[in-house]
Amino acid sequence: MDRNRFDIQFSGDLVPGTDVLAARQRIQHAFNLSDSAVGQLFGGTPVTVRRGVDSETAARYQTAFRDAGALIRIVPASSERAPQPLSLDPFGWSGQGASRTQSQTRPTSVVDRMFHHFEKILAAVLLFLISVVAVIAVIELCFVLYKDITSQKGLFLLDLGELFELFGMFLIVLIAIELMASVYMYMMDKSVHVEIMLLIAITALTRKVVVMDLESKGDPAMYMFGLAALLGTLVGGYYLVKRLTGPGDGH
């Protein structure tokens, strides 16, 4: 008989590349959770899903969460409860009422509530401003493309310089979209997705390479070497982040 007992904890971590809304829906469907329970899971605070389970049950939880694109922590059960635990029992096995769970998730002070709302307002304003910039960038891209095509002077519609300019503007729009996705996911699960930030940096550096003018650089060779080293570092960091989830996740 397995005498080892474990606690199941979830802090909102997702498998890299997983959409947070899709993960929320899968977990809600798999465990038959209410909207408030799912909000508690993805509230940005570590949640204890189960306490004192055996290894077989812990493995089932790990498989269920991984199938939904989420990552849990399985830790040895402790006799001492955490200072501010957030207990969530999806199937009601613990026998604790919902009122106790809800009371544990409420902010402990007025300052906590004010900071929480202030943070949400700032993130929403930032998301709105990035959206406005993205729309303006798309309009500007359409205007430049129309102007370049209608001002044809040779055999080809666009010369090499115009193509590089358009590619650079395309990458600017792509960076804005990735920033929007990053801020939106932060608003949803209160976590910074490192892989998305690395992708934004890689895209920005790629745009720099596309629109780069080596003639204005004092030492083009060293400048290119520095860009190559920086790009290699970012790509290596992105590869390591994708490998952090371990084998069996399809990455």
Explain how this protein is built.
It is found in: Cell membrane. The chain crosses the membrane at residues 121-146, 166-185, 192-210, 222-241. It is a multi-pass membrane protein. Keywords: Cell membrane, Membrane, Transmembrane, Transmembrane helix. With 251 residues, the chain is mostly helical. It has two domains: 6-105, no CATH class; 110-243, no CATH class. It is built from eight helices and three strands, in the order E-H-H-E-H-E-H-H-H-H-H. Strands 2-1-3 form a three-stranded antiparallel beta sheet, with helices on one face. Helix 5 (110-150) packs antiparallel against helix 6, helix 6 (160-189) runs antiparallel to helix 7 and helix 7 (194-210) runs antiparallel to helix 8 (220-243). The two termini are 35 Å apart.
Keywords summarizing the entry:
251 residues; mainly alpha; three-stranded antiparallel beta sheet; 8 helices; 3 strands; 61% helix; elongated; cell membrane
Task: Lay out the secondary structure.
Elements: E1 6-10, H1 20-31, H2 35-41, E2 47-53, H3 55-67, E3 73-76, H4 98-105, H5 110-150, H6 160-189, H7 194-210, H8 220-243
Antiparallel strand pairs: 1-2, 1-3
Write a concise synopsis of the structure shown:
The protein has 251 residues and is mainly α. The chain folds into two domains: 6-105, no CATH class; 110-243, no CATH class.
